[in-house]
Structure formats: C-alpha cells, structure tokens
C-alpha cells in the first residue's frame, strides 16, 4: 500500500509534511480528512487519535502523528 498522509486542507502543519515528502521524491497518497474532529473516524482508527497530519508507512509498519516527528522521519528514513 505504501505511504499515506492523512491531512486537512489548509492545515499549515500538513502542508509542511506535503512539501517535505514532495521534495524528498516520496510517492504517497493523501487521505483528506473532515474539518470536524468528531468526523475523523478513519484517522482515529489508524492512529488512535483524531489530529492531523498522520503518516502511515505500511512498508515499514510505521504510523505517526505530529508534524515535527514526521518531518524528521521523512528526512532520516524516506529521503
């Protein structure tokens, strides 16, 4: 399945992660989420919480939240 990014349109933290993935040449699929936290059931299912961004790397068995951690992961693992 590869890499998926759960993101909210207009979220500056999500945009930073999008930019980092693109700059690193990483192929990924974006799953756009609802603005209402209560409607983010898919995010909660994969990550245990409803905040975004959330990165899911199925190839490595990694799921993580918080943009700074994701940016570090992209830089150290995916780039």
- Give the DSSP E fraction (strand runs of 2 or more residues): 15-25%
CATH architecture, by name, is 3-Layer(aba) Sandwich
Question: What's the pLDDT, averaged over the residues?
Answer: 95
Helix share bin:
25-40%
CATH superfamily: Glutaredoxin
What does the main sheet amount to?
A: 4 strands, mixed
How many distinct domains?
Answer: 1
Q: Tally the helices: what do you get?
A: 3
Q: Major sheet: order of its strands?
A: 2-1-3-4
Alpha carbon gap, first and last residue: 18 Å
Parts with pLDDT < 50 across at least 5 consecutive residues: none
CATH class: Alpha Beta
Q: Could you spell the SSE succession in H and E letters? A: EHEHEEH
Radius of gyration: 11 Å
**Shape, per Cα inertia axes:** globular
């Amino acid at each position: 399945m590869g890499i998926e990014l759960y993101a909210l349109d207009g979220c500056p933290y999500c945009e930073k992660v999008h930019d980092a993935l693109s700059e690193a040449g990483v192929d990924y699929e974006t799953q756009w989420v609802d603005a209402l936290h209560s409607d983010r059931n898919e995010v909660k299912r994969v990550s245990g919480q409803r905040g975004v961004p959330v990165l899911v790397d199925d190839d490595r068995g990694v799921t993580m939240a918080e943009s700074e951690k994701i940016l570090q992961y992209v830089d150290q693992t995916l780039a």
